[in-house]
Backbone:
């Protein structure tokens, strides 16, 4: 008995229902793209068949002329898109068409704004191509049969896009997939051969298979598209729109890309690469396991998606194709990992992307700023991951800075260096877990006073960046919260003398605070970083730094807690007043409060907040007496 033969009705995953609704509404103004999406899927299905057939010729079932057919029926008010690609088994239909198996879907949906124009773009990058059928159809019927399964293993999926679909086993003599769209009331404009041809040429000209339609006047097939691999054509013959439409197909994106690099490489290794930088980060960019975007072809035959060997993880947002002339057609992922040729292609592709970014940064600041706000945090990983290109990646990085005090990251190391003061030999930075915390860090006081710029690093990744990048063009990077502040030539003789004098004057107080705080601090000393605040914490040069320590702890890692150094500001009235405090108990309260508030002001958390509050209250009561 064939248990699967029965017809069953299944419910869409909740997320699918929500997406369908949104999709229909937000993409309505550009509804003709349904055809592009269905053709794109048919083309992918043909690619997959060709690849599987490399090792199993019988999958062709005697028909190796792969093509896509578009037909319409005025009377029945239907449009049909069919292919003789790989097809789907029953399980594949359920997995691919009834569910969205991407992690983070729910969060993504929650992030939508309700603003149709904005959401349309977001939905596009989510990749919901097949569902775009429901923009114009109120019933969609998909009949498919997986290559290699017998004709009795056909499957029909049908839905009105309202929340349920039916699944039924049917006879399907030919392999591949046929999608029939029953047009909604009022969509008859698509029942027109000229219109359909126009749409095919506009969006799908680059599809490498022939897209055929019946000629309008005679009973004959004609190919509507150009049907040649876009990347193999000479650059100067390809229009911008063609590059853009091809991108949408390979990247499964609805929005045009930000930039592309198209190269034909000859010589030892021969290959073509066409690489794109998207306009928008996919919602799962932060998942380093997420899809990589390079498709590998060998002599025009599709080999695999997500060829992660072709792009390092920090460039996982790059989309496109690499078509090699030399690799064997039967190459597997395992072989890819050990292929010298692939290593060479990868190194060259990384270089192309970095060149492209250099070029954008130089010639189109606005586009580069957009790139940086979408992908900057991923690119920063390159400093950690890609030793060979560390300097180049560093040059592409942008940060917030006290120069602009702007949350937007728009200052490069080169900008910084060009503004360095006479006598300044270091690049100063502060790391914090938010822009506000970085910008308001008490450690910046002396720098602001002297007009010395400090980079405000507030991305989590920045902590790793500065552990791997210790200098830029020979200028060491220096945290303003670490070590003894050495302003070098930024400090004049007079200042130095004054500082030494004050240090001597306050020695007794400093020793007393240190004794009082005991194990809680590594050291206590007079600061010259502060102008307005009474105290701050600094980490020893070799210690981890408080921000990194907090990050690692938040990530659940065990880290040794390094004791901080407390620096107190002799110019501050509280500190000056403390010199005359005779009552030991009150002195201890003051010292503790100085320590605790220094921790708070850099975004830290107190071990015992109640203790802090009670000491503070004691002191306030004293004042009120
Ligand atoms: P995407 O193309 O971005 O994966 P779609 O919604 O367009 O998303 O398609 C969902 C999935 O359904 C595809 O990944 C594929 O597995 C399957 N599919 C869609 N159309 C076809 C087809 N014509 N032949 C085979 N599989 C298909
Ligand atoms: Mg698709």
Residues:
């Amino acid at each position: 008995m064939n248990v699967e033969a029965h017809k069953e009705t299944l419910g869409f995953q909740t997320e699918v229902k929500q997406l369908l609704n949104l999709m229909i509404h937000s993409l309505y103004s550009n509804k003709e793209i349904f055809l592009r999406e269905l053709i794109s899927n048919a083309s992918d299905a043909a690619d997959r068949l060709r690849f599987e057939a490399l090792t199993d010729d019988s999958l062709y079932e005697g028909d190796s002329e792969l093509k896509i057919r578009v037909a319409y029926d005025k009377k029945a008010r239907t449009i049909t898109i069919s292919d003789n690609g790989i097809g789907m088994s029953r399980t594949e239909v359920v997995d691919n068409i009834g569910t969205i198996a991407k992690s983070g879907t729910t969060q993504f949906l929650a992030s939508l704004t309700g603003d149709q124009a904005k959401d349309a773009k977001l939905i596009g990058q989510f990749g919901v191509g097949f569902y775009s059928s429901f923009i114009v159809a109120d019933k969609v019927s998909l009949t498919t049969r997986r290559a290699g399964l017998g004709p009795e293993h056909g499957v029909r999926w049908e839905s009105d896009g309202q929340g349920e679909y039916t699944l039924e086993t049917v006879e399907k003599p030919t392999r591949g997939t046929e999608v029939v769209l029953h047009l909604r009331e009022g969509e008859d404009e698509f029942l027109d051969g000229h219109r359909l041809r126009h749409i095919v040429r506009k969006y799908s000209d680059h599809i490498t298979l022939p897209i055929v339609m019946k000629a309008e006047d005679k009973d004959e097939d004609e190919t509507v598209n150009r049907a040649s691999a876009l990347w193999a054509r000479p650059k100067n013959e390809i229009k911008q729109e063609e590059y853009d439409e091809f991108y949408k197909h390979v990247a499964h994106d609805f929005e045009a890309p930000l930039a592309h690099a198209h190269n034909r490489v000859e010589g030892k290794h021969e290959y073509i690469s066409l690489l794109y930088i998207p306009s928008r980060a996919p919602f799962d960019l932060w998942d380093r396991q997420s899809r990589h975007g390079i498709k590998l072809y060998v002599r025009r035959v599709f080999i695999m998606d997500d060829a992660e060997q072709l792009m390092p993880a920090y460039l996982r947002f790059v989309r496109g194709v690499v078509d090699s002339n030399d690799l064997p057609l039967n190459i597997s992922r395992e072989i890819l990992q050990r292929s010298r040729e692939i290593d060479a292609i990868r190194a060259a592709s990384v270089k192309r992307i970095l060149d492209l970014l250099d070029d954008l940064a130089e010639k189109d600041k606005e586009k580069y700023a957009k790139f940086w706000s979408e992908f900057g945090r991923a690119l920063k990983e390159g400093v950690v991951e890609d030793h060979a290109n560390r300097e180049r990646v560093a040059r592409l990085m942008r940060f917030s800075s006290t120069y602009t005090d702007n949350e937007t990251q728009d200052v490069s190391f080169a900008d910084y260096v060009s503004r360095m003061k006479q006598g300044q030999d270091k690049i100063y930075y502060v790391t914090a877990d938010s822009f506000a915390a970085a910008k308001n860090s008490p450690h910046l006081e002396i720098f602001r006073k002297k007009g010395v710029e400090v980079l405000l690093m507030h991305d989590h990744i920045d902590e790793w960046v500065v552990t791997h990048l210790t200098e830029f063009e020979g200028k060491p990077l220096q945290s303003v919260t670490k070590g003894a502040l050495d302003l070098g030539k930024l400090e004049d003789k007079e200042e130095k003398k004054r500082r030494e004098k004050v240090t001597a004057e306050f020695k007794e107080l400093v020793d007393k605070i240190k004794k009082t705080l005991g194990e809680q601090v590594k050291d206590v000393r007079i600061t010259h970083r502060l102008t307005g605040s009474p105290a701050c914490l600094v980490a020893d040069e070799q210690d981890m730094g408080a921000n990194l320590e907090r990050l690692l702890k938040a990530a659940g890692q065990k880290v040794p807690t390094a004791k901080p150094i407390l620096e107190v500001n002799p110019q501050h009235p509280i500190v000056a007043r403390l010199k005359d405090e005779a009552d030991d108990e009150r002195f201890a309260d003051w010292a503790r409060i100085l320590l605790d508030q220094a921790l708070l002001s850099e975004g830290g958390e107190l071990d015992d907040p109640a203790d802090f509050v009670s000491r503070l209250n004691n002191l306030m009561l004293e004042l009120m007496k």
